[in-house]
Amino acid sequence: MITEKKYIRPQTIDEAIHVAHDHHHSFRYIAGGTDVMVNKFQGTDETNCLIDISGLDELKEISVEGNALKIGSLVRLDDLKKNEIIQKNFPALIEAAHSVASPMLRKTATIGGNLLCENRCSFFNQSDWWRESVGYCLKCEGDVCIATGGTKACFSKFVSDTAPVLISVNALLETIDRDGTKIFSLENIYTGDGIAPRNLPGTSIIRHIILPLHQPCRTIFKKLRPREAVDFTSLTTAVTVNESGKIKIVLGGVDPKPVVIEGILNGSSEEYIKMAMKKSRVVDNDFYSRSYRREMIRVFLEQSFEELKK
Amino acid sequence: MRERMKKVKSVQYPQHEISFILNGKKVSCKTKGSAVLLDVIRDVFELKGTKPGCHEGECGACTVLVDNVPVNSCLFLAVNADGKNILTVEGLLHADGTLDPVQESLVQNGAVQCGFCSSGMAMSLKALVHQYENAHPVAGEIKKGIPSRDEIKKHLEGNLCRCTGYVKILDAAEKLFLNNE
């Protein structure tokens, strides 16, 4: 059900932010639209002003500045593979981007949009009729979480596939708002609260995703899902090891935010696997059962460690 | 729920003027900002070949080509089609009434059963033909030779078919490229 009363297509970033502040009570930025439009059709997003930023060409560039690779937030997932620097330094990012949705969606979906993809739950991402008949859950203004039966917290899962890879290579975000540009560590924007999963101000626009160059590292990416294409993740793992043997494990799809574990490669991998399983708050809100997804954390991480030793 | 629907229906939407090339003809129309390309193609221009399937970007029945790139028209804002070149399944038909080789191959190889996915499938295959044809290369994706069965599978993974089991569709695609060679 679409409730739009207004559609605005700004030509510059400043104009977009200005318009967003004017409509701050109820608006949504839209670029690729592959997540926003689905939520609108299902009625889980009832904002009534669309601000279309897909015309902002300055956000569509990939550039190198000093020791940093800057990926514009409106770079399409399908276009990442065309960049030689990403191919050479971050092949896992291309692998992750290519595991998202289907070929057609990747031609419109953007990397910024993937990082800000709304958390999902099998009791939330349904039509309005479905949700009304089951009883609205915490994420759509109900009183109880249907997945857990609890009343305190929403455990909708974090589903971005590119974010675990980007966090594992210590990506930064450059955002822009009326008070100027700010730089955040990507992992710090996720709150862990299923209802409000990100702490970025709604009017901010991600300008760049900044990746450190000249810090050689290897990343192993894995994704669990029922079908090889289209499906959202049931478990995403990204394990990165850098030259000095430091590892960063990031899990997606098993918690309202990405689960991050850091350590050194020569330490006991068993310890990290246990830590990862303990830190993930997996609940029964997916195609696969809770116990299967928990077990698969162990399987994926063991496989990743094996591959890293080769 | 019904109350809310009534409320939504009574809202007057501001209209946006768009013009684009639809199957080789320049067209223009007025549309609301949140309208998707699928609805404009089906309801305004009455081209019913593009099918509404899931409205979630999962099934690919609504695939159309926007500047030779296949997109799910159910999630593509109509206003973003302004100035673009749109090709739907109706545009595949040649001026003399003969079918496009893509359609011909699907028909000849028994890759069409109920037909609901076929227009989307044909458009996706057409995009693959574009990628492999030097005459109309998609920017940055010019490829030589013919695609392998795995590449075709990868390319068609966003188009669901509940009848054929995909084998005949893959056969049709392979034969299409072999005949083109």
CATH topology of chain B: Ubiquitin-like (UB roll)
In total, the number of domains of chain A comes to: 2
Low-confidence stretches of chain A: none
Distance between the termini of chain A: 51 Å
Q: Helix count of chain B, per DSSP?
A: 6
From the coordinates shown, what is the CATH architecture of the largest domain in chain A? 2-Layer Sandwich
Dominant shape of chain B: globular
Structure commentary:
Chain A is α+β, with helices and mostly antiparallel strands and 310 residues long. Helix content of chain A is 27%, strand content 22%. Chain A folds into two domains: 56-212, Uridine Diphospho-n-acetylenolpyruvylglucosamine Reductase, domain 3, CATH 3.30.465; 217-309, Enolase-like, domain 1 (2-Layer Sandwich). Chain A has helices at 13-22, 36-42, 84-89, 91-98, 103-106, 111-115, 128-134, 162-168, 269-279, 290-309, and strands at 6-8, 28-30, 49-52, 62-65, 68-72, 172-177, 180-185, 205-212, 217-224, 235-242, 246-252, 259-264. Chain A is globular and about 55 Å long. Chain B has one domain: Beta-grasp domain (Ubiquitin-like (UB roll)). The longest helix of chain B has 15 residues, at 118-132. Chain B is built from six helices and five strands. In chain B, strand 3 and strand 4 form a beta hairpin.
